[in-house]
Amino acid sequence: MEEHVIDTLFRSRKTLLKILEEKGYDITPYEKLSPWEIEAMIVNEKKNNLKMELVHKENESKCVVMYRLNRVKQSLGKLVSSLNDQESDDYIPNLENTMVYIIVLEPVNNVDVFHNAALNALSNKINLSFFQADSLVNDPRQHILVPKHELVKKEDISALKKFLNIQSVANLPFIRFHQDIQVRLLGTVPGDVIKITRPSPSSGEETVYRVCVP
């Protein structure tokens, strides 16, 4: 495999592990892999060599990171089905309570088959997100033009509605599920509320809220 692909996979993996560690997952089994070890795992060609299974330190929820280095756009339905197939190498036990990230080399556009596959998976209670490896080489959250995104806790929604004087979160401006990489990194699903803190020329800082929709 070409050197730049190895570099992309290694750097994007480091970024994703950092993000998942901040979300509370134990990354210890995977944090010390070198680019050469990544290359060896790929050259070995054993399916799912790059796969990572992480457990949350507090609630023992799981996050599974899978890799697809060949084009998968034409077989996404089969891929998603395989996650729930006990006979498949891709089978994930307790799938409904597991966050699944699939890293691909081909482009993941805002509105395409990856978005549709994630929506279809969600309708079957599977929290699935696709990421192009290139998009994770650098931390997307740290871009100078990207404001801070935070997921509002469910228990804080009632107080937030009172504070904003709204009857329902449906009254908030929306942000679409899976289309925004910040939404994917947060693990957001439709109905969730995101707090966005951004610079303001008048007050120095401005806080806005968005509700995630399909």
Main traits of this protein?
RNA_pol_Rpb5_N_sf, RNA_pol_subH/Rpb5_C, alpha/beta, four-stranded mixed β-sheet, Eukaryotic RPB6 RNA polymerase subunit, single chain, 2 domains, 214 residues
Overall description:
This protein has helices at residues 3-22, 35-44, 76-82, 113-123, 157-164, 181-186, and strands at residues 52-55, 62-68, 98-104, 127-132, 148-151, 174-176, 193-200, 204-213. The N and C termini lie far apart (37 Å). Strands 1-2-3-4 form a four-stranded mixed beta sheet. A four-stranded mixed beta sheet has the order 5-7-8-6. A hairpin with a 6-residue loop joins strand 1 and strand 2. By secondary structure, the protein is an alpha/beta fold. The chain folds into two domains: 3-138; 141-213, RPB5-like RNA polymerase subunit (Eukaryotic RPB6 RNA polymerase subunit). The chain has six helices and eight strands; from the N terminus they run H-H-E-E-H-E-H-E-E-H-E-H-E-E. 29% of the residues lie in helices and 23% in strands. Residues 141-212 form the RNA polymerase subunit H/Rpb5 C-terminal domain. Keywords: Transcription. This is RNA polymerase subunit H/Rpb5 C-terminal domain-containing protein.
